Amino acid sequence: MTKEATPCYTAIVSNAMPLLEPLPRQPFSKGLVELYTGTGKGKTTAALGVVLRAVAHGLRVHIVYFMKGDTRYGEQEILSRLPGVSFAKFGQPSFVDPKNVKEEEKEEARRALAEARRAMLSGRYDLIVLDEVNVAAAWKLISVEEVLHLIRDKPEEVELILTGRYAPAELVEAADLVTEMMEVKHPFQKGVMARPGIDY
């Protein structure tokens, strides 16, 4: 008769317990620049994982969405309920055509970058996420130099995360941490479209 295995961990069921209190906030003495790029899935997902961890430590987070002005993303429903987290969305309702970028799309990207700068310099946030800023720079909605200028002006205690495909080489060079998601296989290749709760 074999003895039943006992788990070596304690499961926390969210609907059975109140939310835990955040850990004591420890601001960064030196914030870094993180960059997530590549053709594989998981860039925004990785950034959101950092956001969740930051919130657990009582850090203050602001997310700026580039080129996602009219789409409702599942994480925003939860982010709006988390303490110390705010976000701002910019972009047109339609997808950007990189071969035919419209002036209003550039204007939205400029507004997003201005919002990122405002938040970064406000002293109110420990972590700033610029979601899809790499694409915005690669497709020339904003210039690479403008993004580099933002990075150079980053206060010492602020962490920046830049996400999106096609990260220009200059941004890769300027970042402290770079992760490239490589697509090996994707369900889209079999005709499986983006699924709510998994892809957005």
Explain what the structure shows.
The protein is globular. The chain has one domain: P-loop containing nucleotide triphosphate hydrolases (Rossmann fold, 3-Layer(aba) Sandwich). The protein has a 6-stranded parallel β-sheet, sandwiched between helices. It is built from 6 helices and 6 strands, in the order E-H-E-H-E-H-E-H-H-E-H-E. Mean pLDDT is 89; it is low at 6-17. With 200 residues, it is an alpha/beta fold. The chain is 30% helix and 14% strand. Strand 2, helix 2 (74-79) and strand 3 form a beta-alpha-beta unit.
Average of pLDDT: 89
Helix and strand pattern: EHEHEHEHHEHE
Q: CATH topology, what is it called?
A: Rossmann fold
SS summary, helix count: 6
Helix content: 25-40%
What would CATH call the class? Alpha Beta
Q: Alpha-carbon distance between the termini?
A: 48 Å
Short description:
The protein is built from six helices and six strands; from the N terminus they run βαβαβαβααβαβ. With 200 residues, the chain is an alpha/beta fold.
Index terms:
single chain; alpha/beta; 6 strands; 6 helices; six-stranded parallel sheet; Rossmann fold; 30% helix; globular; 200 residues
Describe the protein's topology.
Blueprint: E1 33-37, H1 43-56, E2 61-65, H2 74-79, E3 85-89, H3 103-121, E4 127-131, H4 133-138, H5 144-152, E5 159-163, H6 169-174, E6 177-180
Parallel strand pairs: 1-5, 1-6, 2-3, 2-4, 4-5
